[in-house]
Amino acid sequence: MEIKRLNASFGASVTDIDLAGLDDPTFAELYRHWLQYALLIFPAQFLSRDTQVEFAQRFGALEFEYAPISNLTRAGNVRGEDDVVKILKGNMEWHCDSTYMSVMAKGAVFSAHVVPSVGGQTGWADMRAAYAELDADTRTQVDVLSAKHSLQHSQAKVGHSHSKQSQYSGYGFHDGEIPLRPLVKQHPETGVKSLLIGRHAYGVPGMSEADSERFLGRLVADACGANRTYFHQWSEGDVVVWDNRCLLHRVNDWDMKLPRVMYHSRIAGDPSSESY
Fold first, then answer.
1. CATH classification at residue 176
2. Whole-prediction pTM value?
3. Within the chain, what is the greatest distance between any pair of CA atoms?
4. Range of 75's domain?
5. Is the model's pLDDT at 170 over the cut of 90?
6. What percent of the chain has pLDDT over 90?
C-alpha cells in the first residue's frame, strides 16, 4: 500500500490496497497507520455491505453494523423536513459519535454511495493538535473540567424534539443517565491527550448555562481552525475510517433536493476506556 499524508496535522490517503482482501500482517500495518494518522481515506473501494462490515469488525466489536446516512426514503424519494433530515442538519456541527451513550464510539468506517454534485463534504478536526496547542491558562482550565453530553440537547438546537411516531429510529434519544465526560481524553492506545468537545457537550459543572455555552463554543471554534481540519470531497466508492477518540467530524451543507447516500459502520468503544 502507498500512504500519502494529507495537508493537515493528521490523516492520510491510502492507495494500492484492496480492503476486501487484507491478510493479517497487512491489516496490522494498516492499524498502526490508523493510530498514527487517526483518519485513513481509501479512494474507489466500492465495498459491498458484507465486506464493509467485515472490514469494520477488524477494528473491534461494532456498535452497529451498517446504517444509511441518507436524505432518501426507503422508496428512493428525497425527504422533506422530517426528523431524519433534522439529524442530518444537526450533523453539520462538529461532534464525536456516541458521546451521549454510556460508552462512546471507538471509530467508524464510512462509505460513499451517492454523492451530490456540490457540497456534502465530510470534515474532520484533530483534537490532539488542538489540545497540544492550547495556551497554558486554557490547558490548566480544561484539564480539570467536564461537560454533559446529550443528543436531546444538541438536536433541540435545530428544532428537533423526538417522538415515538418519528421516522427516525430514535437511536441516542434515551432516557438514561446523561454522561458527564472530562474535556480532556487520553487515548487508550497511544497515550496522547486530546480535547473531547463538540455539539453534544454542554453544562460544564460550576458554570452558568450561558458561560458554559460560550466557553465550549470558543473551544470548538479555536480547535477547528488552522491546519487542524481536513474536508474530503467524496467520490462514489470512497471509504474512510476514523478514530472517534481523537477527532471531531461534521458534514458540509448541500442542496437537500439532491440525494446523498452514505453507509456508516460504527466501531464500539472499550468500556474500560470509553465509559464516562
1. 3.60.130.10
2. 0.96
3. 54
4. 2-270
5. no
6. 92
